[in-house]
Design a protein that fits this description.
By secondary structure, the protein is α/β, with parallel strands linked by helices. The chain has 13 helices and 14 strands. The protein has helices spanning 25-39, 66-76, 95-105, 129-144, 196-206, 225-237, 252-261, 267-286, 305-312, 328-338, 341-344, 366-376, 378-387, and strands at 8-15, 48-51, 55-59, 82-91, 114-120, 155-161, 166-169, 173-174, 185-190, 209-217, 245-250, 291-292, 319-320, 390-393. The structure holds adenosine-5'-triphosphate (ATP) and magnesium ion.
Length: 394
Amino acid sequence: MTMSALGEPCVLLKLGEIVLKGKNRELFERRLIGNIRGALKQFDFTVDVRKRHGVIAIFLPQGSTADRADAVAQRVADVPGLVWIHSAWQVPKDPDTVLKAGLELFRDRHPATFAVRSRRRDKRFPLRSNELDRLVGGAINDEYHLPVDLKNPGLTLHIEVDRDEVFMFTDGLPGQGGLPVGSSGRALVLMSGGIDSPVAAYRMMRRGLHVDFLHFSGIPFTTSESIYKAYALVRKLDRFQGQSRLWVVPFGKAQQSIRTSGQDRLAVIAQRRLMLKTAEEVAHRIKAHALITGDALGQVSSQTLANITAQDHAVDMPILRPLVGWDKTEIMAEARRIGTLEISELPDEDCCTLLAPKRAETRAKIEDLKQIEKRLDAEELAVQLADSIQEYTL
Ligand code: ATP
Ligand code: MG
């Protein structure tokens, strides 16, 4: 057997929006590297995550297979803050070895055309990037009689000359984009078993928030199904951030008092305000600084502009609504992409169906809501509800 010129498999990561950061860039990068290490804890081998100039490299234990690099790449593709993830080869830094490695990489591939794209992050390397392109491209062309097509190549060989090694790769997985989870702080997601709130959670994780999840169940008047669903959704979403917690509020009795205390048509908004007040109380306790909901403007009667305003007035904490301008079809496509749709579509007994009036108010008046809340003693009730939460850790 001849020695391979390809060296060791590794994984090369391209950063997203972080590269636009000025002074804080270092902080973001450190957080991102911490998140990558956290995501890779699931493997039974240790990795070496290194910051390079403008990229991050993951080195694997000596003798690792390319399959192992692919598994690491797959896992890291879920970590927000990255735009491209490449299973790559870490090749010794001399032009002759790079050339041999290029030939090896094309040995079992049969594209119609190809291109070589080099980048020289270390300017001390003896060949400029266009010289390296021509050297390696020429050799591949001679050896396999493969035509070059720079505009629309069937396969592109990327060669990146770095500080200590040359990275070579042909394929890549698109990353999640966005910012590293945790770089924007913590927030609390109001998580139903529906389609929208898991997507809202994902979009805000991608903007750098680490989120906790809060679910209101109709217990004791409904079954636990909605809790299982919320739990399954949180499990599905955990791969994007890690260390997720689900908090469950038994909400059935409070809903019953809402029903008996006011006008039928306002019950849904009154209940939503009570959820928000409870969520705000929980958020203070877990040191979260914003609430997140899956509201989309006009999607249902509780999401008219007037009713969204009435909900904003229930709490002091900001309510983030990342889906406010999204169509249902867009939300569903995203839910399918992140894998939550099939869980959300399972049947359950949503606590909200307990309170479905024949005609819901589309223009709730805050004064009327305050009347209901006075009778309920809503502020005190929210504290009691927050006292009754149960934690589910993954
Ligand atoms: P979803 O698909 O997220 O359930 P939806 O279209 O069904 O949303 P609503 O039921 O009006 O809309 O809920 C609007 C938002 O209120 C939800 O996205 C969620 O953030 C919050 N919410 C509703 N029900 C609950 C619940 N039982 N527990 C926690 N949050 C809830
Ligand atoms: Mg819902």
